[in-house]
Amino acid sequence: MRVELIPGLLLAFAIVVILMPPYIRLLQATGFTKQIRIEGPDTHQVKHGTPTMGGALVILVVLVKASRGVELDLLVDDLVAALEARPR
Fold it and tell me: What contacts 24+ positions apart, CB below 8 Å, involve 5-10?
């Protein structure tokens, strides 16, 4: 893994940690929760109402970060080139 990826990964992780609690509440409010069958074991009944699709937020954050990362890299490259071209 390239060292340049580490800050981006840490930023994506922090964004997921911050956004996950409201996202879980949204999933519960919209009904994206586990439905446990009556025929199943009684120990599985505690899972009823557990939000599903939590991985969708992780995928979304990584995709947004990856697309924005390309734009930010281009912006930084342009800024560095402008600073290097500046007369001293």
Answer: 8/65, 8/69
81: amino acid identity, one letter: A
pLDDT at 40: 77
Spatial distance between the Cα atoms of 49 and 36, rounded to a whole number of angstroms = 9
So what's the pLDDT on residue 9? 76
Give the whole-angstrom CA distance, residue 67 versus residue 76: 15
Confidence band, pLDDT 50/70/90 cuts, at residue 86: low
How far, CA to CA in Å, does 68 sit from each of 8, 72, 78, 82?
A: 10, 6, 15, 21
- How far apart, in whole angstroms, are the C-alpha atoms of residue 72 and residue 56? 24
